[in-house]
TrEMBL record:
Species this chain originates from: Anaerococcus lactolyticus ATCC 51172
Stretches assigned to the Aminotransferase class V domain: 2-352
Presence of the UniProt keyword ATP-binding in the record: no
Name of the protein described by the UniProt record: Aminotransferase, class V
Cofactors required: pyridoxal 5'-phosphate
Superkingdom: Bacteria
GO molecular function: transaminase activity
UniProtKB keywords: Aminotransferase, Pyridoxal phosphate, Transferase
InterPro entries associated with the record: Aminotrans_V_dom, Cysteine_dSase, PyrdxlP-dep_Trfase, PyrdxlP-dep_Trfase_major, PyrdxlP-dep_Trfase_small
Length: 369
């Protein structure tokens, strides 16, 4: 099997899985309980918050856990009113959350063909009515890394009270997420994107913004911003996975894999369009479009050879890509976009095999057409 769909989800690290099982067996008490057994479970949560806080240069009291990055994004967005700024290339959990939020107006900042936000357009859309801004840090479909530091400076220089939220789901553990360097107020992340468990998300919320947050779920407010019994096994495993991801020092290797596959495709398959930018892009993601190809057909042909990729975001379920439309991709490439996303378990030999199957499959599809 060659698994190239890591942007959709990752395989749990053995260490994280072992930690998860250990906590399930030995620290299964409710962490909200007042007895000592419950406090042992609560301490595991505190230890994880301390680690994440140190990693992103925040206080542990600014770290909260949710059921997913989707919940995190919804909590952040639906806590505010007034006028919001975002873009048309956001993850569905942000883009759709805005549709059901309480804003008087949502303004969409323009982007170029590589997904980079137009900073002049951002400046033009700022006014005294803007209260909240939400942008994706690393685009989940094409890998573009926004210059959040500069974007935040533009916004805060205009009005320091505007709350800035970023979706760091594809960034956490892979590129620097220092919240002070980035200049942001709220940040979402998800454990299963860095080899942790599913159904465990997180939110960094700067202390002075916490009073503005409105929980989506009413109950015991165990995480203040979210109700429901905390999940110590998943939270602790999240911390173990994140630590291993950070300490893996795999970035340069992943970058080498990305460039290797990019070159293989460019040199061997004609009429292709590399959507992911060459610079300022996450090496974990490579989005490529093939002219006159149905990506779903190509995906299943690769699947027959146990090569697993995706046709854009896993959340789109094969629908027409909103993000590619916002990039202005030529019509002949629109239906033929495939996202390859890497982990350090992939080898160059895997990519050689992928290229061989990819080329023969595309040739076969084009012959039929």
């Amino acid at each position: 099997m060659i698994y190239l769909d890591n942007a959709a989800t990752t395989k749990m690290y053995d260490e994280a899985l072992k930690a998860y099982v250990d906590v399930c067996k030995n620290y299964f008490a409710n962490p909200s309980a007042l007895h000592s057994f419950g406090m042992e479970a609560e301490n595991l949560i505190k230890d994880t918050k301390k680690y994440i806080g140190k990693l992103i240069s925040s206080n542990e009291s600014e770290i909260f856990f949710t059921k997913s990055a989707t919940e995190s994004n919804n909590i952040a967005i639906k806590s505010f009113e007034g006028v919001a700024l975002t873009s048309k290339i956001e993850h569905s959990s942000v883009f759709n959350a805005f549709k059901h939020a309480n804003f008087d107006e949502i303004r969409y900042v323009n982007n170029d063909k590589y997904g980079f936000l137009n900073e002049e357009d951002l400046k033009n859309k700022l006014d005294d009515k803007v209260t909240f801004v939400s942008f994706i840090y690393v685009n989940n479909e094409i890998g573009t890394i926004q210059d959040i530091k500069n974007i935040s400076k533009i916004i805060k220089d205009y009005n320091k009270d505007i709350v800035i939220h970023i979706d760091a789901t594809q960034a956490m553990g892979k590129i620097p997420c220092d919240v002070n360097e980035l200049g942001i107020d709220i940040m979402s992340f998800s454990a299963h994107k860095f080899h942790g468990p599913k159904q465990l998300g997180g939110l960094y919320i700067r202390k002075n913004a916490q009073g503005k947050i409105r929980p989506l779920l009413d109950g015991g407010y165990q995480e203040i911003i979210s109700s429901g019994t905390n999940n110590p096994p998943a939270i602790y495993a999240c911390g173990i996975a994140l630590k291993k991801q950070v300490e893996s020092n795999e970035y340069e290797y992943i970058k080498e894999l990305n460039h290797y596959l990019r070159t293989l495709i460019e040199d061997n398959i004609y009429d292709t369009y590399i959507i992911s930018p060459l610079n300022n892009s996450s090496p974990y993601i490579l989005d490529v479009a093939f002219a006159n190809i149905k990506s779903e057909v190509l995906l299943h042909m690769l699947e027959e050879e146990e090569i697993y990729v995706s046709s854009g975001s896993a959340c789109s379920k094969g629908d027409y890509s909103r993000i590619l439309s916002a990039l202005g991709i030529e019509k002949k490439y629109m239906d033929g976009a495939i996202r390859f996303s890497f982990s350090n378990e992939i080898t160059k030999e895997d990519l050689d095999c992928t290229l061989k199957v990819l080329k023969s499959s595309i040739d076969m599809i084009r012959m039929v057409i």
